[in-house]
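Progress report, Aim 2. The chain analyzed during this reporting quarter is listed below.
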Amino acid sequence: MRVFLRAMLVSGGIAGLVGATEVLGVQHRLAKGFNPGLGFDGIAVALVGGLSVVALVGVAFLFALLRQAGEVSQITLGIPSELVDVMIALIILTTSAHVVIRWTARRRFAPPPPPPPSPQPPAGEAPPADRHEKTSEPAQP
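Predicted structure tokens for the chain:
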């Protein structure tokens, strides 16, 4: 838990420094439309890239290429830039589908849980007699 908390604090600090550098050093003001969906793209890149650094770099370049191609194709060809969002959504769905399929199969084909153990009497005590056992005593008239 400590490592997770430290990682979140460090990544949040780095993101804040990058945003502050962009606003204070490049724009000199907070412009409307600053940071349009970069947080979503970062989460999507991390999801698709998994735990591989090489895959993260490749996926980040793919998403950046798609975003830039969407802007250029909207200007030159008149294609809506929302098509890039649909393509990214399809990439996310296809790469994460195996996790959902594996989870569903594991739940469906998992063996049933074992029955709970019967309570054991404390040491030194006789187990309680079964009420339905036949006794050797004769029935009273």
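The chain has a mean pLDDT of 81. The first helix runs from residue 2 to 27. These observations will guide the mutagenesis work planned for the next reporting period.
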